[in-house]
Specification:
The chain is mainly beta. It contains five helices and 26 strands. It has helices spanning about 65-75, 90-100, 245, 250-255, 295, and strands at about 30, 50-55, 55, 110-115, 115-120, 125-130, 135-140, 150, 155, 165-170, 175-180, 190-195, 220-230, 230-240, 265-270, 275-280, 285-290, 305-310, 320-325, 330-335, 340, 345-350, 360-365, 370-380, 385-390, 395-400. The two termini are about 25 Å apart. The model is unreliable at about 65-70, about 75-105 and about 390-400 (pLDDT under 50).
C-alpha cells in the first residue's frame, strides 16, 4: 500500500494523530502459539500528542529550534540553546499542566532509576514513572553533583553488573564530554572520565574515540561497534545526507511526500594510519536497529534487526521488519499490508547458544483496524509465531 487515501492523507497518517485518552486493557487474546519461556514486561516509549490546543501543533517530528537548524545545515551543534528544553516553546503549557515542572518531552527511551524507571530524551532531566502502572511520579534530576546540558537517550549497559554508561555534554568556553556510570538500582552517577572538545558534535547514541575523516553521511542510530586488533569496526544506519530531517516535518509525513531511507553501512577505522573504509552491508533499508545485545554489544556479531521499507522511494514510511545477516548481506523480512512496525526487540531463549535463537517483538500499527498489536516472530526463520489482539497472517520474504 503506497500513495494516499481518499482524503489525501498518507496511509500511515493515523500514526501521527493525537492520542487524547489512555487505554487500559487487562487481557489481550493471543493468536498463534508463543514460546512457553517467553515471560516478562515490554515497555515502549514514544510521542502521543502533536497538537497543544487552540489549533497549534508541532511542525516537526523533532522540534524546530536553532540547534535543530544547526544540525541540519552544519552537521554539528552550534548553539547553546541545545541545552534549553527543546520542547519548551510549544509543549510547555501542555506538559507543565501534567507534570508541574518546566516542559519535558522524554519520548525516546526508558531506563531504570532507583526503584522506579524514567522516560528519557537528550536533555538531562527525566520523567519518573511507576513501571507497573505507568503512572507519572515526577520530573526528576539525578542525585549527584554532575552537571551538563545534553546527554544521549541511549545509554549502554555493562554486562558484568547491569550498570549503565552514558555521557553528559557540558557547554563552556571549551566544552567537554563527561563519561559516567550509573549503577543498577541507584539514581546517582559516577564520573569515569572527562574529554575536552572545542566543537562538540551531536550524538544520539555512542561515545568519542577519535576524529577521522571519510566521505560524508548522516546517521541517527548505530547498530554495533567493536575493536578488531588495530582497527575499530562500527555499523550504522547511514543516510546519504541530512535531508531526512526535512523529510520528517509532520506535514510532509502526513502527506506522504517520501522520506530518504537508511542502509546498513560498515566503517572500518585504522587507528594507526587514520584510514577509513566504508561498505554497504545490504541494499535493504534498515532503521531503528537492534541486536542480541546482552552477548554481542561491543563484540563481533552476525545478525541485526530493524524496521525497513518495501517502497525504495520511501513513499510508505517504515512498513516492514528486516533481519540482516551481516557477513553475507542476506535479509529476511516480515510485512503485512497496512501495518507499520515499531523498533524490533530481540529476546534470547534461556540457555540459547545460537545468536538468533529467540524471538523478535514489535508493536505494530494496523491501519486496517485502526489499532495496534504485539507481534512475535521466530528470530531464526522470521516466521510469525503469534500476536496479541488480532489474527496472525504470516508473510516472509527472503532475499540473497
Amino acid at each position: 500500500m503506497t500513495g494516499r487515501d481518499a482524503t489525501g492523507a498518507a496511509p500511515y497518517a493515523i500514526g501521527f494523530a493525537d492520542l487524547d485518552s489512555e487505554v487500559s486493557i487487562d487481557e489481550l487474546p493471543v493468536e498463534g502459539e508463543l514460546p512457553e519461556w517467553l515471560s516478562g514486561t515490554l515497555i515502549r516509549n514514544g510521542p502521543a500528542r502533536y497538537g497543544v490546543g487552540n489549533g497549534r501543533s508541532l511542525r516537526h517530528w523533532f522540534v524546530d529550534t536553532p540547534n535543530y537548524r544547526s544540525v541540519r545545515d552544519q552537521g554539528r551543534i552550534g548553539y547553546p540553546e541545545f541545552a534549553t528544553d527543546p520542547c519548551g516553546s510549544l509543549f510547555s503549557r501542555f506538559f507543565t499542566r501534567f507534570f508541574g515542572a518546566p516542559g519535558v518531552n522524554p519520548v525516546v527511551n526508558i531506563q531504570p532509576f532507583g526503584e522506579s524507571a524514567v522516560a528519557v530524551t537528550e536533555r538531562p532531566l527525566a520523567v519518573e514513572f511507576d513501571p507497573a502502572t505507568l503512572a507519572t511520579l515526577r520530573v526528576t534530576g539525578y542525585r549527584d553533583k554532575l552537571s551538563g546540558n545534553v546527554t544521549t537517550a541511549h545509554p549502554h549497559a555493562d554486562p558484568n553488573d547491569n550498570s549503565v554508561i552514558n555521557y553528559l555534554l557540558k557547554f563552556g568556553r571549551r566544552s567537554s564530554y563527561q563519561l559516567h556510570r550509573q549503577e543498577a538500582a541507584r539514581s546517582d552517577r559516577r564520573l569515569i572520565s572527562s574529554v575536552p572538545v572545542d566543537q562538540p558534535g551531536y550524538m544520539h547514541d555512542g561515545r568519542v574515540r577519535g576524529s577521522y575523516q571519510t566521505e560524508a553521511c548522516f546517521v541517527f542510530h548505530h547498530i554495533n561497534a567493536w575493536d578488531n586488533e588495530d582497527e575499530v569496526v562500527f555499523d550504522l544506519c547511514g543516510y546519504p545526507d541530512a535531508s531526512v530531517i526535512d523529510a520528517l516535518y509532520l506535514d510532509a509525513l502526513r502527506e506522504n511526500r517520501g522520506i530518504p531511507l537508511a542502509l546498513p553501512t560498515r566503517f572500518r577505522v585504522q587507528l594507526a594510519s587514520g584510514t577509513v573504509t566504508r561498505e554497504t552491508l545490504s541494499d535493504e533499508p534498515l532503521e531503528l536497529p537492534n541486536i542480541a545485545y546482552s552477548h554481542h554489544n561491543g563484540r563481533p556479531y552476525q545478525f541485526g534487526y530493524g524496521a525497513g521499507a518495501r517502497d525504495r522511494r520511501g513513499l510508505n514510511f517504515l512498513d516492514q521488519l528486516v533481519k540482516l545477516d551481516t557477513p553475507t548481506g542476506a535479509t529476511k523480512s516480515w510485512y503485512q499490508d497496512g501495518c507499520y512496525p515499531s523498533e524490533p526487540v530481540f529476546v534470547p531463549r534461556p540457555a540459547a547458544v545460537d545468536e538468533d535463537d529467540g524471538v523478535v517483538l514489535s508493536v505494530v500499527l494496523d491501519t486496517n483496524d485502526t489499532t495496534s498489536f504485539l507481534l512475535v516472530l521466530a528470530a531464526g526463520t522470521f516466521a510469525e509465531l503469534g500476536s496479541c489482539s488480532r489474527s496472525a497472517r504470516n508473510s516472509v520474504r527472503i532475499s540473497r
